[in-house]
Amino acid sequence: MCAYYIAIDPNVDDTSRMLSPLKRMRKKKFKSEWAMKLIKLLVKEDTSWENTESRLTKHRAKFHQYGKSSSTTQLEEIAESLARLPDTPLLLATKHGCTQVVEEILELYPQAIEHIDQDGRNILHIAILYRNHEVFDLVVNTKYAKERLRGKIDNDANTLLHMVGEEAPDVKADIKDPAHALQDNMKLFKKVANICTTLDNMKLNSKSKTAEQLFNEKNNQRRIEAKEWMIENAKNYTVVAVLIATVAFAAEYTVPGGSNPQNGQPVLKRKSLFFVFTIADAASLSTALTAVIMFLNIITSTYKFKDFETSIMLKLNFGLFLLMVSVAMMMVAFAATLVLTISSGRKWTDITLYVVSFFPVIVFLFTYFQRNIDFSSIYRKIKDMINYMHSWFENPKPAVWYPVSQRTSDRP
């Protein structure tokens, strides 16, 4: 589909012979290209990012309100909220995750990376607050941007790490369970910490809290919800795994075709599908029991913040994978049993029986991989690897990379 999209010419006038799906793709590409042209034109004319106040006033931390009454403070906050100016296009694009707009502005005006809003927040502050990872990666990978922005604080003395603890109320993120949402926040905290200085971990904001303290306070309720969600799901998965193990265990003693009463050997022992049945049933039983152990381990975990980053989620994913394998192997064992007991020896009858028997296995595997594996990310990784290998062979290596004997032999 991507190849067709690239090959389509959006400026074609005659679309009468074009299929309706291609017409929709052509219309979409036409809109995208003209939108980018309009964006480039507007970016050249827009200089709103220059309206940035002095950093001396923006970075003045407001730690205390001594000497002021509560009514005076409230009046000041109301006046400040009424005096707020609308966000500039650069800040709006950062909030809504319009990576192409941000890239165009920074490419044409590199100095716009210093732009801050009325709260003293720069692009990285806002990208973290609104959980726009693409904008964050774009700015961090921009030349010299990380060194210029990573140590900055806003009007409330919040560093980039402090912003991980905060979250915009109107963030349109994917609907996730509390455990995965907490894991995403833990990964984001670690990701931001990698670009921050050591001093940022110890800085206090206007509420005298470090970034870690603020993160734990804001995510404590989510941690409690994630704990309840994990325990409830682990119990349900345990029941399913035990039922599968019970069925697989019982199938070992009631083999298809029965047993020979004289020696106790299975009647269909020499059949190739009987071997498939035996392996599939044994795999279903072993994976189901292993999944039970993983889920019981999850139920008895401590549920600390660090556990949600790797260990608990790894146990859950591994247990679910084993449970899915157990279900798939049980389906294979069922299909092999059905073919062994009903097969009539006729070609078309056997083909139909094979299709009907293994159809649930195919549907199950397709839906599982489609839901749990991001094929687009795998494609991007393979593409990046190919490009890296191509550049590796295209660019000549320095002389220090070659052995000493080879370097000396090349000398005249």
From TrEMBL:
It comes from the Eukaryota. Keywords: Membrane, Transmembrane, Transmembrane helix. InterPro entries: Ankyrin_rpt, Ankyrin_rpt-contain_sf, PGG_dom. The chain crosses the membrane at residues 237-255, 275-299, 320-345, 351-369. The keyword Zinc-finger does not apply. The keyword Nucleotidyltransferase does not apply. GO terms for cellular component: membrane. Residues 228-340 form the PGG domain. This is Ankyrin repeat-containing domain, PGG domain protein. It comes from Artemisia annua (Sweet wormwood).
